[in-house]
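Researcher: I'm preparing a figure for a lab meeting and need a structural model of a single chain. I don't have an experimental structure, so a prediction will have to do for now. The sequence is pasted below. Please return the structure as tokens so I can convert it later.
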Amino acid sequence: MNLKNILPFEKYTLRTSLSKEEVFKKIADTIQPEQKFKISVFGENYSKPYSGKIIDNTFTMTRNINYKNSFLPFIIGSVSTSNNKTEINIKMRPVKTVLIFSSIWMSIVGIVCISMLTVTIINFDEFSNNEFSPAAIIPFGMFLFGFLLTYFTFKTESKI
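Model: Understood. Here is the structure written out token by token.
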């Protein structure tokens, strides 16, 4: 199993015969300037499908949506030219707050899971006479829930 396939990150390269300037023109036509302190209104109409900015040979953007979704991908791209072809390198990841929260969540719950497994293995003879407690699987369920929530919501949005 490749670790890149289970993490909420994507990276790919697009190649086109368009010039670098034409690519940036098309990108500029699809993004509107970012609003730092934006109050979201349900049913809001956006003038363009993405919000972001272009700086030199790079761009950043997120998709404009009319609902709340913390797992919406943050897109970082760069444009370069080689062999009369223009390459657009794109990286997608969750926003930093989601990455930080998910990392803390998975770390704490992961440590609890490892601790429970360690204690169970060390004291296996003492626990073999006791009955299984369903509460013991709660941290494992929390870990699985955190992973699946982050993975599937990000991957679903990144396909769009």
